[in-house]
Design goal:
Elements (H helix, E strand, L loop, with lengths): L1 E4 L13 H10 L8 E6 L3 E9 L8 E3 L3 E9 L2 E7 L17 E3 L5 E5 L3 E5 L3 E7 L3 E10 L2
Antiparallel strand pairs: 1-9, 2-3, 3-11, 4-7, 5-9, 5-11, 6-8, 6-10
Length: about 150
């Protein structure tokens, strides 16, 4: 997991070959007039999902992990708290991995919680189980799905 300010994004371009392209695309988005939806940035290699979500309490947020895509979460308005736990420490799968949706849910309790605010981002790699959308109120956010291969 990587948590930082968007101004520092170039520090992480070497982590994955497509991170720079995703952050370059982020710079083109007018966050004051953004439309919800899924946008192809680079075919199936990079997709941007812009959404408005009702936040939930910690007990209702399940840990999830992905095998084919890494995630970049960027709040547009509002703060978002995440739960996190290393995939190596996971003990309680909630079901099987869904390869079509690239997601698996877990019943474990997160090892830690942290909050991301507008101007910041968090990157979740395949080693990171994360419980998103924790907090109160409504959140506008962008999630980049970046193919790991």
């Amino acid at each position: 997991m990587i948590l930082d300010n968007i101004k520092n994004a170039p520090l992480y371009y070497g982590v994955h070959k497509r991170l720079k392209q995703a952050f370059d695309y982020l710079e083109t988005i007018d966050t004051d007039n953004v439309s919800e939806g899924t946008f192809e940035v680079d075919g199936n290699n990079i997709k941007a999902i812009i959404s408005t979500n009702e936040l939930k309490n910690k007990d209702d947020a399940l840990l999830e992990a992905h095998q084919k895509y890494l995630d970049i979460h960027v709040p547009i308005s509002g703060n978002e708290t995440f739960g996190w736990k290393s995939i190596k420490a996971i003990e309680k799968s909630r079901g099987k991995y869904d390869s079509e949706r690239d997601i698996e849910f877990f019943n474990d309790t997160p090892a830690t919680y942290f909050t991301v605010s507008p101007g910041d981002f968090v990157i979740f790699l395949s080693e990171d189980a994360h419980a998103p959308l924790i907090g109160a109120g409504t959140l506008n956010k962008i999630i980049f799905k970046i193919s790991i291969d």
